[in-house]
Design goal:
about 170 residues; alpha/beta; three-stranded parallel β-sheet; 5 strands; about 40% helix; about 15% strand
Length: about 170
């Protein structure tokens, strides 16, 4: 499913096909919000900006091309902004969660309440909850992370480091 957006390179009467709508929104919103966020942080002389991507920003094959590339873009933006804003004492980081069993995700992946525990994780008996992502973001915003900038914090139960096909452990 593609959304038509006017192209700055085309005449006003033409449009081009680009990313699916959800992928465009992932990084367009992040890019659009950075000037305001960074200006406010520069005025205060300190700050922490945290973006949200996905484990799809580090592995391939877990989602569509458009979604995956948009999450790569969000991480790239956070890293580039960390370089630009570091001279002002502003830290920029990203959280990249695995599947959080929200109502939307449960519907998309056809999971019931019992099915969410069957989603692959390297941590036996653990299920990622929205509160876990919030706690990670709070850490990155806190003074305990005062020297952490440009980091993509994966909250994935080991999903991105394990290949279950090997199964040697």
């Amino acid at each position: 499913m593609y959304t038509l957006h006017p192209s700055p390179l085309a005449s006003k009467s033409k449009s081009v096909k680009v990313y699916p709508k959800e992928a465009s929104e992932n990084h367009i919103f992040s890019m659009a919000s950075f000037p305001q966020l960074s200006a406010a942080a520069r005025r205060s002389g300190k700050g922490s900006i945290i973006t949200t991507a996905s484990v799809c920003s580090t592995v391939g094959g877990a989602a569509s091309h458009a979604y995956t590339s948009s999450k790569h873009a969000v991480v790239g933006l956070a890293r580039n902004a960390a370089v630009e804003l570091g001279k002002y004492g502003i830290r920029v980081n990203c959280v990249s969660p695995y599947l959080v069993a929200t109502p939307l995700a449960k519907d998309f992946f056809k999971l019931d309440d019992e099915g969410e525990s069957g989603v692959y994780s390297n941590l036996k008996g653990k299920v990622l909850k929205p509160e876990d992502v919030a706690e990670a973001a709070l850490y990155l915003a806190s003074d305990e992370a005062k020297y952490v900038s440009g980091h993509n914090l994966l909250i994935d139960g080991g999903f991105t480091i394990v290949n279950p096909a090997f199964g040697i452990f």
